[in-house]
Amino acid sequence: MELRKEVLEEMSLLRERTPDVTGSVACTVDGLPIACDLGAEGGEQAAALSAALLAMSRRMLTMTGQGALEETLVSGTAGFVAFYAAGPTIVLTVLAGPGTNVGLLRLEGRKTAAGVAAVAARKH
Asked: Which residue, 112, 97, 85, is CA-closest to 14?
């Protein structure tokens, strides 16, 4: 099975486990989209921004000695966007609505990122 399809399956499982998730995108650390569950528009832009934010987050942690990246969580007035390193080559970005159980989002986001990383490792 191709990488895109298996990653989309992981993203679908995330939506099943976390009802407040409204979409997600997986991309390479260079910003190239792998799989998108955001609707018809915005996948390429979201992928590029996700890769940039992951790089900045990793750099900040390295600079400040805070360890390895687990996630970056952005909170807005209309919901949340969480970014996860899914292994060394993939970024998983998850969107969630307002009122989201952030603990559940973090738990399930990390689980999905690990699943995506495992899929990528099998494909290489």
From this structure: 112
